[in-house]
Amino acid sequence: MAGDLERRVVGNAWDLARVALARNVLLQTLSTDPRVQAVFRDWWNRRGFDRPITTVDAFRVAVLKDTAADLDRLDRLVRDDLGLDYPWLPAHLLTDFRLVTLDPTARALIVPPDDLTGIDVGRAPKRGAVQHEDIPRNVEWFYRARIKDPRENVTAIAAEYARKARRRTDARSVVQAGIKRAETLLACVDPPDPTI
Question: pTM to 2 decimals?
């Protein structure tokens, strides 16, 4: 995993599944961030969803109008407010916003990983299942240490983890490595089709 993903190449289905899981966890985590929620509420109100929409065509027009302006606003949110350099994230957030309008319980972030057909499946990385299970935790740590406002100190996150895991040693290296793994996976995400 490390070699290909460090070069931002998704080389097999295992890597693709990890990248998709990291993306989904980040979207889910960001959906609770007050800055993202404020932009969503503004988007929702500007679309007129605060009042009944009576036809499917009116709904479609409301959801799809001003895509360029929406992406521009979300790009500023991602870059300036969240401090992230993920060109793929604005389009994923917009897709998530649009899916929530169809069904508030259906989130873009709970869709299964991207279609794995046509990808040559390579050998699973060592301890693949363990690493796969660690992805949500690592992305959460990444959010808390790099995005959340205010950001949390890695030492505090490590102390919390050490207590929960009943570790006797300092867990800073575990947290730092987890954050680095999350960053590596998230750097591999491609943007979705913004017309969805």
Answer: 0.80
